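User: What would this chain look like folded?
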Amino acid sequence: MCLFAAERNQQTETVQNSPILVRMGALSQENFYPRPIFYELGSACQVRNSSLDAANVSLYSQHSMKLELTKHLDKVRDTVSEVDRIVSSHKYPSDRRTVMVMGLLSTIIQHHRSMLHLIKSAGTAGSSWALARDILKGTRYGLWINSCATDEQILQIEQADEFPFIIPEVTKEIEAAYRTDRFFEDLKNRWGAQLYKLSRSDIFQLGRWEIDASSGLHLDDGEIREATTIATLCVVLLAGKFLTSQGHSADCEQIETLAAEYTNRAA
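Assistant: Here's the prediction, encoded as structure tokens.
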């Protein structure tokens, strides 16, 4: 099954709000904390105690999330943190190609952190799917820019308001460029069905929605585990190929080893 197969028929994709061009430099180490929640009580607007919110989230995590899943989420968090540390340990040139790939990598790492935060917070796990899809898109763009795009095409991306190339052709070029790469092929072959499912928009999952006190798309622990595993592998994949292109093949092997357990286990 083709990596990113759900979008094979898509012709163009806007990038006005996409992470194609973001700041260069070391990857962000930001933490994500919930802002205070404002609510109305009669005519008065009060601020809920932030420590109470933190306690409620912690209580939810302890009692509503199975221990096995909690351990898995901690593990994928630690994997991506280590990837971030390794990538950030080097200095890189400031050419357009490098800046774009670094920007995309920085963005999907931030999305990964936010995804885990949403999953661990009560009532927001479904929203993490949007970030997971953005991680897939960012990985696709990053792989193509890193190894396939010409200098002229990169300049076109920088100047265009919309992504100026046909997505199916971009996908074909990615698969041709990495067809002998074992890590890429493992991800595609072992997780192809899950990649396709994850890339589908919520509107195509209408049959799985539930209408009750908490309406929306309900996700079980297995689905959350799959999504976070795929998101983690995407971060590892793009980081590894970027490091190799920058002459750091040993570091690429090191971070791909971190993900060996994920690639060897088909969900």
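Confidence is low (pLDDT under 50) at residues 8-52, 54-63, 203-209. If you want, I can go into more detail on any region.
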